[in-house]
Amino acid sequence: MMCLRPLCLILLASCTVLAGCSRSDALQQILADSELVVVSRNSPTTYYLDKSGAAGFEHDLAQLFADDLGVELQMDTAYSLGGIFRRLNRKEAHIAAAGLSLTNARSAQFAHSMPYANLIPRVIYRTGKRKPSGLDDLQDLQLVVLAGSSHEQTLQDLQAAAWPELTWESVRGADTMELLERVDSGDADIAVIDSNEFRMQHSLYSRLDVAFNLGDEQDMVWYFPPGRAYTTLVERADAFLATILADGRLTKLREEHFGHNTVLSRVGSHVFARNIRGKLPVYRDLIRQVAVEYKLDWHLLAAIAYQESHWDPEATSHTGVRGMMMLTGPTAREMGVKDRLDPLQSLRGGARYLKDMRRRLPADIAEPDRTWMALAAYNMGLAHLEDARALTERRGGDPHVWSDVMENLPLLQKREHYSTTRYGYARGRQAASFVQNIRHYYSILQWKDMSASQPGQPLNPLDFLPEAVRNERFLAL
Questions:
Q1: Are both 230 and 95 inside the same structural domain?
Q2: pLDDT tens readout for residues 405-418
């Protein structure tokens, strides 16, 4: 009998260890395993794969947190909003980072981080049809919304409160592209999506617009699995988010991914969509050939050519610039271009000129800012760019950061500022728009190819998807 006592003690000790493991601290386990598992959704505003690997705003934010912890990041994908939270509930991921808004229902079940962004629910309709002006106008319209979204919960609350006739279709999935496509094609009258999603995708759905806001601004947060084991992980995530908000890294990250969102006219968006289908196939192989020759991403070169000429090799302006890349006579001669109307020569001249601008910039300007500034120099000249950088530094900004320089470029058109520079007046506002438009076009072209290469990713019938949010991974140098 005495031999049973040590056995009982061993069993008791084992149970204690197992119980301790079941209540173990998630943060300590992450550090011990050297791996942070984050579940997201595949979309241009969150997480996707490009030729360089994982990309997207939520991916890069999670990567910063993983780096802060000193662990590897593993990004997993769920293809519906409900799937994201099921993964959390089963503790198959440490964090859900997917552009998720803070709601009472979600926070009652899952822990969440401090807010790191804000968004507004928008009611989207197709222009040319009756524009709904409020909730009373929705009751006789076909409304679509993502299943499991905060918007679906809002509609349920409204229906129970005062609008019992309100109906909608809940669409399974995790990307709002299908909602916008249904409204654009006439298969639905209206959709409810977040403001950031619509801003990213609006350019390819030029006939769609905002009817009104469905409620107030909402906070965007990370969610964590339920249980006390995740308390310290939430606290560590909050401290991390507070730090990068205070030191400017969060603002910079948002600018890198979303700063290129320019507001194009509906006509401009429609023309771009038409040209992608009609003109780009004619010159795609030629653009790719030149991009390989000069070690550039062909999407970037195509975006520059579209901004310059709408892919028209015979384009000519009143100032005398000509060709697909709209080269001036002196620049063409400097780049060895004999015939500016020859598309191959023009593309080669433009690519060579961009590479020359990049090479001549100070060595301490890093990507992607280096290329955005090279594009500004491509448009306005390197001397004026240096004036803008000097103004930026003088006014307390960072002359190595594109967003700071871009903010000061318009000052080159104001006498009080350009009179203090070495090279004087320049059309700085035009140069800033030039760069931002190219970033916009580049992102759309890149996302088209990336989405087409990912099995299971739904495609727009127009055969391309909205603009990507990754802008720095395009130089294969």
A1: yes
A2: 999 998 988 778 88
